[in-house]
Sequence to fold (72 residues):
Amino acid sequence: LLAIDGLGYYQEKGSPKRLIRKGEAVKCPANTLHWHGASPNQFFVQIAITDAKKGTAVWLEPVKDLEYFSPN
Fold:
């Protein structure tokens, strides 16, 4: 996951939420439940790269507001 602009969040299930800033990269481990997206008050532009030979992403339920807005 490459952060192109703005400010985003990334969180793996059971781990603290972290900020992603422009220029940063995050490796999303295979078969690890996680979410990523814009922070509440700022846009976020990202590029997600997937090795399609190893399978595609499986989208689950949307992140709940309580989880998204929690301090951690």
Q: What stands out?
A: Strands lie at 2-12, 18-21, 34-38, 44-47. Residues 65-69 form the longest helix (5 residues).
